[in-house]
Amino acid sequence: MTRRELHVVVPGPIEQRTGGYIYDARIVSGLRELQWSVAVHSVHGAFPDPDRRARSSLVSTLAKIPTGRCVVIDGLAMGALPEPVRAEAERLRVLALVHHPLADETGLDAEARDRFKRLERAALTACAGVLVTSAFTAGRVQAYGVQAERVRVVCPGTDRCPPAVGPQRDEPPALLCVGSVTPRKGHDVLVRALARLRDLAWSCVCAGSLASAPGHVESVHDLIREARLDDRVSLIGECASGRLDALYRQASLFVLPSHYEGYGMALSDALARGLGVVSTTGGAIPHTVPSDAGVLVSPGDDAALTGALRDLLAEPGGTERRAALAAAARRHAETLPTWDQA
């Protein structure tokens, strides 16, 4: 084995447009640019709650990797499958890449949460080391029994981007939310908050996959219809990078009401474009968004979210308050790590 050889295991295609997959893909492409030999292996089946196909796929994938190689497995693919990790722990150097622990996902019942904790603890403690995307998640992983010296933090990089310019002068403030429409991202909380702001001028575009939780997507659509916000709130689905860049450029304010984030790449992407942020205190978000560039409320508190947005949208004063957040975001953008550093 050469020092610059790596195998990366992910559930499904690595080209998926979610934060975790984008992180994985950018690290892989960056290592290849640095002349590493990186083989990407896609495992198939149901994840993170694995079915028989998922278990078989991970077992066969690891078995085909030559002895002595270093293997990074995305936590979605191995968190609930400790047995294949244990079986290969002596033959391969297995590292876990944890974006956030499986049990921290929103909407799990107590039984599922306890099961994920038990399985992921066993999987992580069988690994030679664990990579995480934030210091906050490092602490969460250590709570699973992984010694601090076996944990490494590799924060996501951010691209240097031109600052957002916002909508045309005669158009209302434009809110942008980026994230898959799943219970954890809190789109339902956002719609309930916006329903109380019908007296103000604004529009809101939500960009992100509509395929991960179809039932939840339908309930969010129902909330939009019930609040008579069809003409003001748009769920446009997954966007290619060019379209997403245009949405950031045209935005006045970024909003992400997540219940929990292990880092929050969309938040740093917004800050990199000089956008003020309205989000929550869930998980690592307070570590990602500086206090002078954002307004953070308790997760799930739609009334508090309404208040934060009203303060930034209502005149007089809303324009100036958004400008102050944007100026702080631009200052913070200069400190964000690049993908080369990651």
Shape: globular
Q: How large a portion of the residues is in β-strands, by DSSP E?
A: 15-25%
| Computed structural class | alpha/beta
Whole-angstrom Rg = 21 Å
Please tell me about this protein's structure:
With 342 residues, the chain is α/β, with parallel strands linked by helices. 39% of the residues lie in helices and 17% in strands. The chain contains 13 helices and 12 strands. The chain has a 6-stranded parallel β-sheet with strand order 2-1-3-4-5-6, with helices on both faces. Helix 5 links the parallel strand 4 and strand 5. Helix 7 packs across helix 12.
Keywords:
six-stranded parallel β-sheet, alpha/beta, 342 residues
Summarize the model shown.
With 342 residues, the chain is α/β, with parallel strands linked by helices. Helices cover 39% and strands 17% of the residues. A six-stranded parallel sheet has the order 2-1-3-4-5-6, with helices on both faces.
List the helices and strands and how they pair.
Layout: E1 5-11, H1 19-33, E2 37-43, H2 52-64, E3 70-74, H3 75-78, H4 82-88, E4 93-98, H5 110-125, E5 129-132, H6 135-142, E6 151-153, E7 174-178, H7 187-195, E8 203-207, H8 214-226, E9 233-237, H9 241-249, E10 253-255, H10 265-272, E11 277-280, H11 285-288, E12 294-297, H12 302-313, H13 318-333
Parallel strand pairs: 1-2, 1-3, 3-4, 4-5, 5-6, 7-8, 7-10, 8-9, 10-11, 11-12
